[in-house]
Fold this protein.
Amino acid sequence: MMKKEMIAMLLAGGQGSRLGVLTAKVAKPAVAFGGKYRIIDFPLSNCINSGIDTVGVLTQYQPLRLNTHIGIGIPWDLDRNIGGVTVLPPYEKSSNSEWYTGTANAIYQNIDFIDLYNPDYVLILSGDHIYKMDYEIMLDYHKANNADVTLAAMPVPLEEASRFGILITDDDNKINEFEEKPANPRSNLASMGIYIFSWKVLKEALIKMKDQQGCDFGKHIIPYCFNNDKRLFAYEFNGYWKDVGTLSSYWEANMELIDIIPEFNLYEELWRIYTKADMIPPQYISSDSVIERSIIGEGSEIHGHVKNSVIGSGVTIEEDAVVENSIVMAGSVINKGAKVSKAIIAENVVIGENAILGVGVEAPSKLDPKVYASDLVTVGENSYIPGGVKVGKNTAISGVTEISDYENGELPGGGYIIKAGEDR
């Protein structure tokens, strides 16, 4: 029987509907971040840097790119004979095939996988946060408190507290009360969705709560442990942590990478972030180009002006094109004279000559004002924007569009063009 002290289960099934057209064809954890990474690289790198060599990645929605990216885990040194990284999609059982209906249900369906390693502790992670954390220190804390469950928690501004599970603790950080998304929060200590469970305790809770509709950690498992006199502790984390679940927080987290002294440093030797690197040539920057404060990916060719932007690999920016305050993902082309301002442009997009993105006055999105906000222009992957058109703020474009889609050559602020067969 194999024996691992702690294994990690990484929940990467999320659709990420608040990322709009960015996640129409790809799971949120597989969305590009910071030029060369994908969001899931961060928790995976944290695992290997923390000495955890067994990780189950639970996938569900649009898993193809995630599976290709993770492969057998070589970039994270997770290609092990015993342990390593295992992708765990929902599988057909003889009686019925079941999707994962909630975060805890996904773990429940993989009890056999966890039992295979007979761990003392199980670390539960989610695939859509950008942060660096040493889980080993959190495990030491769990043991020192003789805890059944330890929840990583961080102080948040009180006005944002109602978006989180809120913990009320005593002087020893023992949790006395737990409120899921309270209207009037009584504390600003928020659960980060990172948990260490003693495996016996978690297994019991999963089996007891298995019939709950959409069984979830925050709604069901944590309250069950709490109500059954288990020892719950809050582990306070004060490092950088960003939930990149909305377009504005995703855009901000990318922009923070290019601050003069980035709040989140990708370049530390001691805590590397690993990713699957394609074999691509170095970037080419022409003598006419002007680049200020930007990250430029490998294999990119820059002839125009780039300012305050994060440019992925294999991107082409032609002469006289201007890109500012924007994210341009791998393989996209910005043609001559185009101007792109405060936009998120997904992979393999082509922007025609002299097109202008991000102009005019702001107007609320007609597609979904909750998703498309902060004056951003969001363009889904493989889209085409014809030359000469003007695109306003809080807009969404997905698919191969043509001049006739733009009334008088324009998509006004708040508008959207989603071509047939494209998801929102």
